[in-house]
Amino acid sequence: MAPCVSCFLLAVLISAGCKAIPSSDPKCTEKEGNRTYNCENLGLREIPDTLPNTTEVLEFSFNFLPTIQNTTFSRLINLIFLDLTRCQINWVHEDTFQSHHQLNTIVLTGNPLIFMAETSLTGPKLLKHLFLTQTGISNLEFIPVHNLENLESLHLGSNHISSINLPENFPTQNLKVLDFQNNAIHYISRKDTNALEQATNLSLNFNGNDIKGIEPGAFNSKIFQSLKFGGSLNLSIVFKGLQNCTIQSLWLGTFEDTDDQDLTSATFEGLCDMSVESINLQKHHFNDLSSSTFRCFTRLQELDLTAAHLKGLPSGIEGMNSLKKLVLNANNFDQLCQINAASFPSLRELYIKGNMRKLDLGTRCLEKLETLQKLDLSHSDIEASDCCNLQLKNLRHLQYLNLSYNEPLGLEDQAFKECPQLELLDLAFTHLRVKAPHSPFQNLHLLRVLNLSHCLLDTSNQHLLAGLRDLRHLNLQGNSFQDGSISKTNLLQTVGSLEILILSSCSLLSIDQQAFQGLGNVNHLDLSYNSLTGDSTDALNHLKGIYLNLASNNIRIIPPHLLPALSQQSTINLSHNPLDCTCSNIHFITWYKENLHKLEDLEETTCANPPSLRGMKLSNVKLHCGLTGMGIFFIVVFVFLLILLLIFSVKFILRWKYQHI
């Protein structure tokens, strides 16, 4: 009889069914309800009727609209931003935007424009940004000037423009950005720049134009937020042409494919007759670099010498007491002392990122930089057995230190004693060998952000983070824990002020239910890319209102008694888990559908089991876990047979007793 009973029970289970709710995606993607839509690259020849009249932001690039006129967008009167990049537009007719009073940005990049009517841009009351990049313009007279009084940025890059002489009556009083990069401009006259007199704090971009001449006085007494002459072959011409000019940021870098002249001391003579706060000279070569090269740099506050093929900075540089920021990324220093930091006593920011050679930190190389607040030495193959007090001697005001992506560092006891004001310390992807039995960070009472991702840490050292009483953000991504588990007593117990904790890719198999007991302030917990199961959510019982990332784990079933721990969180990511979509997980699936507003990455939260539903979005799965008609029939038959069995058993017992009386 037992085999029969098993067969009937199996039949009842099989009678439970699974059903998916089909979904259909709209043609244009809705990015923000009734306001923002993306219709890019859909082969459209007109504005779809499905777009609501309330649309404010429309991304319509890579479609086909050879002609646009006043009926093209007439229904979408609430437009604020319109992107028509590469829609093969040739003609822009009269009053195309006459009904779009709120429109402030029009992007026509990459359209082979043949004609723009004089009144084509009338209508918008606050048109601020106009993009005409790569539209084939060769003469600025092509641009309609009507209704541009409020224009703040005009982008004309990658065209065939040879003169920046703007049309008569072109309004520039509100212009903040004028972009002429990658055109055919070789000469700038006083007449050209006089049209820009009404513009204040203008950012003017001439990158990619080989400027061969600037009329004397063209920039006389003019004030600019930024000027860019990147790629110019002869910087002497630029410096001489900018005499008596005031510029906050001057970008003079070059590019890999530009065969420019080497820079000498004579190149910078014109710099003495202008006022500049920041200069970028990236990728240039210096010829006969000496202290005299920097004679006219004395008023600079920022200097960027990224990838300038430098092996060292000369000693004896004088007068650069105003320099606050120095960028020396991607150069060829062998030792930190080769930058002669004492020449820049007022530095607050120093960047030597991505040095092309193995960088030796030396000792006391930066001790004269008493006001330094930010130091980036990442990606420089730095290796040190005893770090970092001698190397960072006297940096009492340092607040930001980046030593990530370097070779192994040995951290001594109180390794950052010389930098007690540190607020952010980044040691990611640098193998740390902690020599002391206690914490190398114990004097960093002001540290708020600590990145220890992929540092091959000994996480069994429960005192590793001791002393970090104000730590808010801790990244331990890629570090392993003993036996793949975070125990009740762990290194996190000393950092109760944490708000953000990242434990992704730590090969975790389980978490003790009291492992996070002391982390009452946490509001962001990332446990993604581990091998945790549903039972691990028991460790979250005392955490409330947090962002919880459990993506890419081994969660199949979440028991009903653990669902309250998830319900009390604000946002949860369960994507890329092998979720079970059978009746054994019905409580979780029901909870999931009731809490979609809390869940993130719904598209990638899919079923792994049963095979018939593999890849189906969890939100679309409908389970019938009650008894079907067939199931009821089997149960009735089963009960009937059970009664018959009982009757025959009673009769058999009574007969046996009667025979043995």
TrEMBL record:
Residues making up the signal peptide according to the UniProt record: 1-20
Xref: Pfam families: LRR_11 (PF18831), LRR_8 (PF13855)
Any one GO MF annotation of this record: signaling receptor activity
LRRCT domain boundaries: 577-626
Cellular component terms (Gene Ontology): plasma membrane
SUBUNIT field: M-shaped tetramer of two CD180-LY86 heterodimers.
Assigned protein family: Belongs to the Toll-like receptor family.
Protein's name according to its UniProt entry: CD180 antigen
Lineage: Eukaryota, Metazoa, Chordata, Craniata, Vertebrata
